[in-house]
Each structure stands twice: as C-alpha cells, then as structure tokens.
Amino acid sequence: MKPSVANITVRFIAIALLCQGATRGEPPAAEDVNFFETKIWPVLVKRCYECHSADSKELGGQLRLDDREAVLAGGQSGPALVAGKPDESLLIKALRYDDVEMPPEDPLPAAVVEDFVQWIQRGAADPRVKEIAPQAASAEISSELWSLQPIADPAPPEVQATAWPRDPLDRFVLARLESDGIAPTQDAEPRVLIRRLYFDLIGLPPTLAEIEAFVASYESDGPKAVARVVDDLLARPQFGERWGRHWLDVARYAESNGNDGLGRNPTFPHAWRYRDYVIRAWNEDTPYDQFLIEQIAGDLLVSESPAERDRGRIATGFLALSSKPAKAMNNNFDMDVVADQIDLVGRGILGLSIACARCHDHKFDPIPTNDYYALAGIFTSSETMWG
Hints:
Layout: H1 5-18, H2 29-48, H3 68-73, H4 90-95, H5 110-121, H6 135-142, H7 168-179, H8 190-202, H9 208-221, H10 223-234, H11 237-250, H12 271-283, H13 288-297, H14 306-315, H15 317-320, H16 333-350, H17 369-379
Helix pairs in contact: 1-7, 2-5, 8-9, 8-10, 9-10, 11-12, 13-14, 16-17
C-alpha cells in the first residue's frame, strides 16, 4: 500500500506526540547561512575572487574574500565588514562606489548590493573554513545522513508496560518514554479527546452537539467511536486546508515575489491554483510518490483528459513560486531561477543541501559540481517564467 499525504499526516501527529518534550526548530543561523550560500558566495566567486583570493595573481588591497577569517581581518584599509552594521562596513561602501569602487568599472546591480547589505545586517553568516575535510571523512559523514538511509521496517521495541500499547506504533512511543524514565499519563477524557482530534486534523473546534454525540458514543463504543470521528474528519475539506498548508511552507508558497529590496514586489495572480491543488491532493488521499512527480514533471505526464492535463501543469507551480531574482541588469537571471529550483527540490524533497555545489563540490552533502550542473541542464530546458 502506497503512503498517501493523508496517511503520512496522521503518522506525523502520532510521532509529534513522542517529540513534544524535545527542542523544536532549526538554529536561527541556518537561514542566514543559506542566504550567504545562495546570494553572496556565488557573487564573490564570480566578481571578486579574481583580485581578492589566495589564487589572485596580484592581491588587491591585500584583501582576501575567499574565507571567513580573511574577510574579518580585512586588508590595508582594515576589516572588510562589521557584522550587523552595513553602513559601517568598508565592503558595502566599496560596492556602493563610496570613495572606493568594487568591482572597478563594472558595478554590481543595485539588487545584488542590497543582498550584501541584508547579509551583513543579519550578522554576516559565513560557513567557509580554510581547511577542507578529507574526502574519506566526508563520505563517512554523508553515510550517516538520515536522508540517505534505506527505508526500513524496524521491529517494534520491547517495553515494560506491555498492557499500555494498542498497536505497534504505541510501542515506539512507549519505549521512548520509558528510556527517559517517564510513565504514560492517563487517557484523556472524551470531551478533551474530541477537541484534540478536531484541532489536530482540521484546526477547528467541535460544536457542542458534536461533543455531546461523541461523549455518548464513546461510553458505549470506546476506540470505535474515536475511529469514526477520525474518518469523518479526514473526509472533510478542512483537513486538506489544515495540513496542506505545511506543504505550502515547504514549497515557499506566496502570492508575490517578495525578494527585491528595492521595493519591487510583483504579484503571482494565479498562485491560488497551486494552493488549491495541494489542498485537493490531501483531501483526495493522493499517493505521496504521485504527489511529488506531478510537482516536478506534471507537464510531461501523459493525461487522459483536459482536467488531468491541467492538474499536472498547475502542480509544477511548485517550481515557479517563491522569491525569484530581478531580471533587470542581471545577466545570470535564468541560472539564478534554476539555482532556486535546485535548492527547493534538494531541501524540500531530497533532504539535501545542494546550493553550495553551484560553485564547488559540496563539503558535507555528497553533491559534486558535476551533479549540480546535470540537474541544472534539466531545469534550463523548461521555460519557468513564461507569460
């Protein structure tokens, strides 16, 4: 039986109960590092390294920009940046052609300069280090990545309170609790349970009539009453609205571009079509593999009806949404769009950070530059911003 988006959602709720006590969320610096790798590093490599790197024939101003420590140390004029203070950073003054001009004779587009301003405002995160880990060590680390592990069917663990589990999943929850010396709490009262089910699955509270009907049913049927309520909630359109929004976060759904620091923010007037596609996928219990294929290559799938053809095309909005670079004065516009799509597919679907491989073999995830541009060749064959 193929896992569906609805099936995965219900499993997620159960697993979330196991992890309630854990610290949630990625470290705040993660997004800042990604900003550097996608917005700043490629510009440094293409426009600055020729004169400001260890490989430069003549090091301009004794300033290197090819590793973190060198940027902080600066050159003849002092440190190149002051984290959090772009207006006090020599790098920004040079990019703005304020006394010093970098790059000479060919200034960066205003939008790119604004990216550098934002980078420094956000603390100037820079993951670059002088020494690169040996390939063998990198491979060893990569083999431990969760996203590269084969799918397994682990046997339910042994537990002490054998009377508590009602199905195999409960044994995994209980084993974690017991390992931390925690005993399961008592079952929720019916009036509490019905509210939890409603809020978890559709994000709305039950009516008084629904609560009273469930309490009466629970007293006579117990678990069967719970199963009936869950089935009812999964069949409601609000289920797709409640849980589809989490995939929209993965897809970076928005109804405007929101990427240009110069005040330009073009709208995506048809973005709602992709939003509704995601909601329908949840409500129709779409198999997860089909859900992914439609979003990556829906326009290439064989369709048996105009409606099915349109569904596949709308699904590829996954690749067209989110912030895109401005085309004005940007000779790399097409490749910047492709870079955004590769990053989305890598992090959103593969669980891998791929963006770094645009400039060099990835130092952690097992992605060489050759693989990156093989993917880029696929995406450059598509006309993303048509119309």
